[in-house]
Automatic annotation (TrEMBL):
GO terms for molecular function: mRNA 3'-UTR AU-rich region binding; NADPH binding; quinone reductase (NADPH) activity. InterPro entries: ADH-like_C, ADH-like_N, ER, GroES-like_sf, NAD(P)-bd_dom_sf, QOR-like. GO terms for cellular component: cytosol. Keywords: NADP, Oxidoreductase. It comes from Rhodovarius crocodyli. It comes from the Bacteria. This is Quinone oxidoreductase. Residues 11-322 form the Enoyl reductase (ER) domain. The lineage of its organism: Bacteria, Pseudomonadati, Pseudomonadota, Alphaproteobacteria, Acetobacterales.
Length: 324
């Protein structure tokens, strides 16, 4: 037997239950991973509250984990029993002591990356990788706007942008988070209650920026567009304040022939080749010390409800992991 967090209905953190379940057995093409650490990400909240629908209820949520392969199904060649591995893509099911997952979705960990670090960075780090290298390839000398700069993806993307030679205007919700973002390299900080477009225009001499990375969603969508230079790109990759709906596309032409994209990591890592490239790129910048993974919170996996409460209350910074 093993234990996992399951939801039987959509709702608040209280719907997550710590339950005993039979040990899963790998099917052909699958590997069973005994988790050493599980990542906490805002997408987990969306699956828990029903913004994103699970395939069926009851369900084990969670997108990211790291541990050791302890069994494989028929036909598995990408990993072997005893390999240290991590993953950060669907299907859901990470909030468990062990799980089975398609072996071609697992990435072998280099010796320099611990399970805690991997669980803290795979989803957020690979998200940062495709955002800053593929959705809009940031180049040296550019100025960018990064919302939630003190969050999990934010701190990684911030460091990566500085490594590439960009100037970063970060937004945060509190003075404490402002100090954290500054300590990781943010050049300018704008607090959530301040006029972001006005601040950006002042910093850029009225030019605006070529790209805004926005994980907040509804509350910041229009302000983000107003920060952009003509033909600029808005990368919307989260809904922390709620989803963006009812957008008039004419706004994009009126504000300067703007581009908006709503990417997902599943699309950008759909092939085995893309997945390995994305993960290897992340391992490289972490190994170089260009990106430091900041694990600021650790919770027992059985206390995932409290972790969700703290995440939604914006009490967390950097990365958070759950320990089986």
């Amino acid at each position: 037997m093993t234990y996992a967090i399951r939801i039987h209905e959509y709702g608040g953190p209280e719907v997550m239950k710590w339950e005993e379940l039979p040990k899963p057995e790998p099917k052909p093409g699958e590997a069973r991973v005994k988790h050493e650490a599980v990542g906490l990400n805002y997408i987990d909240v969306y699956f828990r509250n029903g913004l994103y629908k699970v395939p069926q209820l009851p369900a084990i949520i969670g997108m990211e984990g790291a541990g050791v392969v302890d069994a494989v199904g028929a036909g598995v060649t990408d990993v072997a029993v005893g390999d240290r591995v991590a993953y950060a893509s669907g299907p859901i099911g990470a909030y468990a002591e062990m799980r089975c997952i398609k072996a071609d979705r697992l990435v072998k960990l280099p010796d320099s990356i611990s399970a805690d670090t991997a669980a803290a960075m795979m989803l957020q780090g690979m998200t940062a990788q495709f955002l800053i290298n593929s959705c809009f390839p940031v180049k040296a000398g550019q100025t960018i706007v990064l919302h939630a700069a003190a969050g999990g993806v934010g701190l990684i993307l911030l460091q990566w942008a500085k490594y590439l030679g960009a100037t970063v205007i970060g937004t945060v919700s509190t003075p404490e988070k402002a100090e954290l973002a500054k300590s990781f390299g943010a050049d300018h900080i704008v607090l959530a209650h301040e006029d972001l477009p006005a601040a950006v225009k002042k910093i850029t001499g009225g030019a605006g920026v070529p790209v805004v990375y926005d994980s907040i969603g509804r509350d910041t969508f229009m302000a983000s567009l107003d920060c952009l230079a003509p033909r600029g790109t808005m990368v919307s990759f989260g809904n922390a304040s709620g989803p963006v709906t009812g957008v008039d596309l004419g706004i994009l032409s009126a504000k300067g022939s703007l581009y908006v994209t709503r990417p997902t990591m599943n699309t950008y890592t759909a092939s085995r080749e893309d997945l390995v490239h994305c993960a290897t790129s992340l391992f490289d910048v972490v190994a170089k010390g260009a990106v430091k993974i900041n694990i600021n919170q650790r919770y027992a996996l059985k206390d995932a409800g409290q972790a969700h409460s703290d995440l939604e209350a914006r009490k967390t910074t950097g990365s958070t992991i759950l320990l089986p």
